[in-house]
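User:
I would dearly like some help making sense of a protein record. Take your time, and here it is.
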Amino acid sequence: MIEINYKTFFLKKKFPLRISRGVFTGSENLFLFVSRNKKVGIGEMCPGLTEGAETVDDGKSQIKKFLEETGPISSSVVENYNKAFEYNLAPCALAALDISLWDLVAKEANMPLYKLFGLNLPNVSTSITLGIMPLDEIEERIFYLRKKGMLKNIKIKLGTPEGIDRDKEMLEKILHFTKSDCHNMRVDANGGWSLDDSHKMLKWLHKKGVEYVEQPLAKGQEEDLKFLFKDRPLPIFVDESCRNSRDILDLSNFVDGINLKLMKCGGLTEALKMVAIARNLNLKTMIGCMGESSVSISAGCAIGALFDYIDLDSHLNLDPDPTSGAELVRGIVTPKNSPGHGAFFVNA
């Protein structure tokens, strides 16, 4: 019999993250503990309106209601995921449950989670995200990242409401301060551009040596991707437009790759399915994150070997991270060689 407990923590960001849709200074996250025979699996939920649960209380009540109405947790993690998905449990709440169960199963098998999945350690270094910011803050932020050795791959958030000229100013200044450090420059517009501006920005960013552009058009404008995809000078990835495996086929002819997130798709079970479908359709794969601690990041990097690109850096911007887990080794977010996903609470 599985016992379930919950904890809530506010995760404060060192640096507020501004994207096209607003500014994020932190989040109150729910941590889920599933216990069986003295083994405890840990999962995490980072709430959000688009993830189906706007608050911790909403997510917690949805999980409790799901368990009350559908009966005990299945001994099969996949079966439990399918049941919760059909129940329409909020993806971020489902992610917490799914991650905790995979952690528990791996601990019961006395295996690191990545080995349970039959995977190698990841070998792709993570992107480090730079949010939209005032121009006079850029030099100080770059100095901080340089001191931390985090300038190899930078993902710049663009799509400011001030327009593409302001986007260009910001990127030019970042390029000026990182020209000797940054190997790969990526851009995420978070749906902040019109179709016309997207055409212009892809051409301009290509000249600036940017590697790819993520989510140029807003969710809901997927029909316009076909106009942008033709003769594109840069690869196009989608994030907000691709929530789970059911979205991939319709997008596959008009994008180069997908960015999946555990909070968005509902956990590791669905993430594995998404990777399989994307690869079958010859799409590139990326795993990203939201405002998560080392718990969810450790779960994500357990399947990191499957991805072409990795954006698992949210825990590096917490002040503090109440948990510890995956470590940054030569820029690669690396799972610990311990049973489960390897994350734990520092003072618990």
Q: What stands out?
A: The two ends are 23 Å apart (CA to CA). The longest strand covers residues 3-19. The chain has a mean pLDDT of 97.
